[in-house]
């Protein structure tokens, strides 16, 4: 299983995934507008959408997603620029 980037600011966090991964897992319509998009990437909000992705990924691969192994964390002490990206739309 690959390593995913996780970005957070003082108020929230987002997991960066390729849009094609959502399509491959068949969950592209389940992602909410609380996530953001930019180019080929979707920044899944941490509360619901990232969990939806992780559950689908585990189901497909049979591998348990482990935060310490599969996430590379990036923490900012100010508002993230991700908040300025367009909201996710399928």
SSE blueprint and pairings:
Blueprint: E1 4-8, E2 13-18, H1 19-25, E3 36-38, E4 41-45, H2 49-61, H3 67-70, E5 71-75
Parallel strand pairs: 1-5
Antiparallel strand pairs: 1-2, 2-4, 3-4
Shape assignment = globular
User: How many helices in DSSP terms?
Assistant: 3
Helix content: 25-40%
Task: State the major sheet.
Answer: 5 strands, mixed
Domain count, please report it: 1
Contiguous runs where pLDDT drops below 50 for at least 5 residues: none
Helix-strand string: EEHEEHHE
Strand content: 25-35%
Secondary-structure-based class equals: alpha+beta
| Termini Cα gap | 25 Å
Overall mean pLDDT score?
96
**How would you write the strand order of the largest sheet?**
3-4-2-1-5
Write down how many β-strands occur, each being a DSSP E stretch of 2 or more residues: 5
Rg calc: 12 Å
List the main descriptive attributes of the protein structure presented here:
single chain, globular, 5 strands, 5-stranded mixed beta sheet, 3 helices, 27% helix, alpha+beta, 27% strand, 90 residues
What does this entry look like structurally?
This protein has one domain (4-84). It is globular and about 35 Å long. The chain has 90 residues and is of the alpha+beta class. The chain is 27% helix and 27% strand. The longest helix is centred in the middle third of the chain and has 13 residues, at 49-61. A five-stranded mixed β-sheet has the order 3-4-2-1-5. The mean pLDDT is 96. It contains three helices and five strands; from the N terminus they run ββαββααβ.
């Amino acid at each position: 299983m690959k390593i995913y980037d996780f970005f957070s600011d003082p108020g929230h966090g987002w997991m960066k995934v390729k849009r094609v991964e959502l399509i491959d897992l068949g969950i592209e319509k389940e992602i909410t507008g609380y996530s953001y998009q930019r180019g080929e990437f979707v920044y899944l909000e941490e509360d619901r959408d990232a969990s939806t992705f992780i559950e689908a990924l585990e189901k497909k691969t049979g591998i348990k997603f482990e935060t310490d192994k599969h996430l590379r964390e990036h923490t900012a002490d100010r508002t993230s620029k991700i908040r300025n990206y367009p909201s996710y739309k399928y």
